Structures are given as structure tokens and as C-alpha cells.
Amino acid sequence: MKTKKVTKKIDIMHVAELSKLKLTSSEVKLFTLQLGKIIEHVADLNEVDTKDSKPTSQTTGLVNVKRKDEVKQSLSQEDAVSQKGHTHNGYFVVPMILENKEI
Fold this sequence. Notes:
Elements: H1 12-18, H2 25-44, H3 77-81, E1 87-88, E2 91-92
Antiparallel strand pairs: 1-2
């Protein structure tokens, strides 16, 4: 396959802004080059002849492959929290990380 040049200029600063990234000028140059190569590679896919290919959602032919749901022995709630020093009503006590603020 022959690589075509992507003529559309990539606005790496716009992508960085959307991603909330602060980039240096050298990073902008590097990422512009890298992203350009990725876009050129994806553009090569347009040259693949797919007219005789059938649409498919999967390729293995497997259908509904699942294991049996079997009940097995597990830890009791007391055993699960026994190694933790701070519990309340059978649950772990952890520091609060969110505050309830009225808007």
C-alpha cells in the first residue's frame, strides 16, 4: 500500500485544550508529528478493498460461551471484616472523602 500524505493540518493545541493538557512548544511539535503519522496510517485503511467482505460482528463463531454459575464457599461477613480494626454494624469504617454540599 502506498502512504498518502494527510493534507489537513492537525490542531494539536485544540486537542490539548480538550484534554486539559499544558504542552511545551517541543511537545506540540513532537505530538503533531506523531499524530500525523497515526492519521496517515488510518487513512491507508481507505485503500483496502472490502467490496467482497461480508459484515460481521465477531469472527470466532462462538455463541453464548459462559461458565456455569455455581455457588461456592466464601468468607462470612465476620471473617471478611475480622482483620480490619474499625468496623460498624459489620461494615468497614473508612475516612469520608466526599462532602455533602448543598447547591
